[in-house]
Amino acid sequence: MKNPLSSCLLLLGLVTVFAQIEEDQPVEAWFYNHLDVGIFGIWADVDGNRHQAFEVEPGKNVLHFTQVGHWFEINDKNGKMHGSFQMKLDEEKIHIWPEGKEPGMVEVTIINNSGKNAIIYYRPEEEDQEMHTIDTMEPGEETSHGAWRGQIWTARDEDGNDLAEISLDSDENKFVISPS
To answer: What is the Cα–Cα distance from 95 to 101, expressed in whole angstroms?
Structure first.
C-alpha cells in the first residue's frame, strides 16, 4: 500500500515478526517533537477528509493510539510539513527533527528488490548485540531512515532467513535487498 499523503521520511519502531502484524491491529504510536515549534498530526478518512489527530508542543512527546495501516502527516504550526508515516509496527516511535533526523545521524535508503516481504533490523557494530526491528517492507518498496554510523542493518524474510546485510559507514548508505 502506498502513502496517500506524502513520502515516508523517518520511521522508528519495534516488533517481533512481520507475519503477526495485520491491518486494524492496535498501535501505540509515540510522537517526539524535537523542534522549537509545536507540531500536529493529520489523518485522512476513507472519504479523503483530513482531521487533526494530536498535537505535540516543542520538546514534548505524546502517545497516540491508532491502527496498523493508518497514515499520519506531520505539520508544524508554521505550516511546514515534516513527513508522513504509515503505522506498520505494534509500537511506533517517531521523532521529528529539524533536518529530518537527529544531528549526527547518517542516511540509509533501503530498496526491497527481493520479491519478498522483508523485516529490517539494526544492531550496534558488535556481533553479539541484540537486533531491533526498525521497519517492514513489501516487495518493490523503497524507504529512507536516519541511523547511526557503524550500525549493522539486516533484512530477513518472514521465515527469518537472511536476505541482505550492510554496515553503515558513510553519510549516505544505499541498502539494496536483491532476489536470492
So the answer is: 8
Give the strands of the sheet with 26-33, arranged side by side: 13-14, 91-96, 26-33, 61-67
DSSP structure string for the chain: ---SS--B----EE-S-GGG--TT-EEEEEEEE-SSS-EEEEEE-TT--EEEEEEE-TT-EEEEEEETT-EEEEEETTS-EEEEEE--SSEEEEEE-TTSS-TT-EEEEEEE-SSS-EEEEEE-SSTTSPPEEEEEE-TT-EEEEEE-TT-EEEEE-TTS-EEEEEE--SSEEEEEE---
Q: Which amino acid is at 69?
A: G
Q: What share of the chain is helix, strand, coil (3-state, %, to 5)?
A: 0, 50, 50
Cα 6 off chain centre by: 14
Mean pLDDT, rounded, for 36-49: 88
Find, among 63, 62, 85, the residue nearest to 73 by Cα.
85
Q: Which three three-digit cell numbers place residue 175?
A: 541498502
pLDDT tens digits, one per residue of 18-36: 333 455 688 899 999 999 9
C-alpha dihedral sign at 8, 174, 122, 156: positive
